[in-house]
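does this look right to u?? S-adenosylmethionine version
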Amino acid sequence: MKLGNALGRKDVRLGLTAAAAGAAAWGWWASDSAPYPYAQHRLLDLPLPFLSQHRLDSMLGPSKGERLLEIGPGTGLQSLKVAPQLGPGGQLDIVDVQQEMLDHVMGLATGAGLDNIVPTLADAHQLPFEEGVFDAAYLVTALGEIPEPEVTLREIHRVLKPGGRIVVGEFFDRHQVRRPPWPGMPTRPGCM
Ligand SMILES: C[S@@+](CC[C@H](N)C(=O)[O-])C[C@H]1O[C@@H](n2cnc3c(N)ncnc32)[C@H](O)[C@@H]1O
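got this back:
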């Protein structure tokens, strides 16, 4: 009896899909290159477990009229969901070290009719913004790619308004930041 007949076509298709997803996940984990290469950008469109948009929204609490900062937007998985919550009077500044990532997000933003996203090509070790201009900042699977994460966190602290919020989302890939970069830094998820 052929394997396809014994298992059923649906089972075989499910098995192949699971194997492909597993290979993609392994490829993600095993990849040691940082910044994440744009050539593999399709993988960034896959939602990651424990890093849902709902979870980010509930920690970040974006509100109409606020100015927010996102570091390492990749293909805009989070940017395109956060920007509409800021409304036309708000602004989402996205900072990435790769122009291709910024172009990708801006192409999707234009297609979606979003005009409150502002791209900036910069290295997150040195943010090209004045002090105290952002209400909140977030990074999802980006902090671990940055060679000196504590420098970036210090920079974010500088550009946040007093009482500003910061959310860091990390995934268990090779670059994961597993503990707070500063001794004594508050570890409550979503807060700093
Ligand atoms: C793995 S992607 C995450 C993309 C997106 N946040 C997501 O969850 O799908 C990491 C992003 O951080 C950016 N990045 C890495 N190092 C950076 C740095 N030093 N400064 C600014 N962006 C950086 C990469 O170019 C990439 O777009």
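The first strand starts at residue 67 and ends at 71. idk if thats expected tbh
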